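Researcher: Next entry in the queue.
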Amino acid sequence: MNRREFLQCTAILISGVSASQLGFTLSVEQTTYLANAPDYNTTPVDYFTPAQRKIVAAMAETIIPRTDTPGAIDAGVPQYIELMVANWLNEGELAIFSAGLADIETRIPQEYGTSFDQLSAEQQLEILEALEDEASDSEWYEFGNTLREFISEAPFICQIKELTIWGFFTSEEGASQVLRYDPMPMYFNGDIPLDKNDSTWSSPL
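Model: Structure for this entry, 205 residues:
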């Protein structure tokens, strides 16, 4: 099983939904892994400090805020990120993530007088946008670079964005309340027009 397939499995285990609901087919190896994996919903993750946990939750919610649809916190994304950091990132990726999180934890109070999670939504967004500007030369931002393997050298902001987006849209909330969910089985229509403001589909097919 490659790392992207493991990412899919872990998202299912945390979100508590089925692969068919999320719209992709599992390999035999993935199915075997899921059948033998621990219940991540009832096993607490204790990798971040309480302060770091608040920062990660605030960053995820800044990336996907609650509006008229659920936000990252509603979908359990902070727990997903903590689990992936603790168990999935390799040594190099973990070093990048840890350094980035430590920077936010120490630098932001010096510059703003309080921790990231206590800032206004506008200030939080400003900080994330500054991190993106600093990381803009990373291959993570290359045009059309989608459905890729996790880029090990990607900066911290790229890591947390990818984990947030993946965790959210493979959650029950993201798949059924943000994506347009079509529960009709055994049906395919390859020509469904989308308006410019339409979401894409989450389908059991």
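Model: The beta strands are 180-181, 201-202.
Researcher: Noted, moving on.
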